[in-house]
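Question thread 4412

I'm putting together a teaching handout and wanted feedback from people who do this every day. The idea is simple: show students a protein as raw sequence, then show them the structure tokens that encode its fold, then repeat with a second protein so they can compare. Below is the first pair exactly as I plan to print it.
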Amino acid sequence: MRARAATATTGARASSTPTGSPGSSPTPTCSSPTCWHSWIELVASDPLLDDAEAVIAALADPELAEGWRARIEELRAPVDQPAGDHPALASAYRGDAAHVLSFDERLGSAKAGATLRERAETSVKSPDAFVRLFDPADAYELVGDGQYPGPDRDRDREQPDEV
């Protein structure tokens, strides 16, 4: 069993701050615990990645967006999305994700949470809140086999740019 999370980019903000600066080469790093563990899957539809790539290109630069997209394609578990569905919510629902990470405050409201729980067992958190609250050792007890082994990915070389 694997833990799953959908990362949403909705509205005018990406789901985390892009690393690098305009004109600089993408530097693969990730400060999120979701990037440090191979037993946590990032589920995302093509429309969700299209949205994220556009936000990164607009807020940083197209080269950073292209580098991010190439790396995230390697890490994500692709899911189908019906036309017209919200990219993050469709990714979470279709990918059976436990969490949606988004800056979209509308998705994090109590009303939205209650509506979501009627259809799927998922919660919406801002990326910063998720990083503060997520305890990989506790999560591993639910999905792993044996004692929590700690991070098993190289944080500097095997991670997508934070976006």
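The second pair follows. I'd like the answer to focus on this one:
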Amino acid sequence: MRLICNKLMVADLAKATAFYEDVLHQEVYEVFDDMIVFKSNIALVSLSRWSEKAASFNQNVTVGFADSILHFEESHFDLYLFEIESRGDIRFLHRVVKRKNGQRLIRFFDPDNHVIEVSEANNRLPDDLMASLVDYNEEVDILSCTEQPCISHCSGIAFLDKKTDKKE
């Protein structure tokens, strides 16, 4: 068995497609009436279409609510940070944090509240990558947090306030 693609339910297919193209630099591979498939094998599916199918089985369908995380790596992380932070229309889960292994990342929401995680490219060997999977109880430093509030505990990560050296 093999995974073909990840499908995300979206309330507004056009709005979500624009977000994934503009913010996440995804390229459309195929367009259907109720679904967009990107070259990265992410698919956006219209909620209205799936709601009709689910109703026939007496099921309700919802979107988002931070129920999943899409992880991207960016080789030009600092340039991407500048781009995303200057947009003004992004809802951040938190600004840049640094893991103990030195890798920086940022998390924010797409228009349907799916969590998007973008980290700087990590060019380590697969064994090293597997050995350094994040312990979600480790402390990380907040590198930048502007006027928007940062969530202190995301997925069990405890952030360390550099100014006071106290856990938030």
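Top answer:
Good format. For the second protein you could add a caption like this: Residues 13-22 form the longest helix (10 residues). The helical segments are 13-22, 47-55, 77-85, 126-131.
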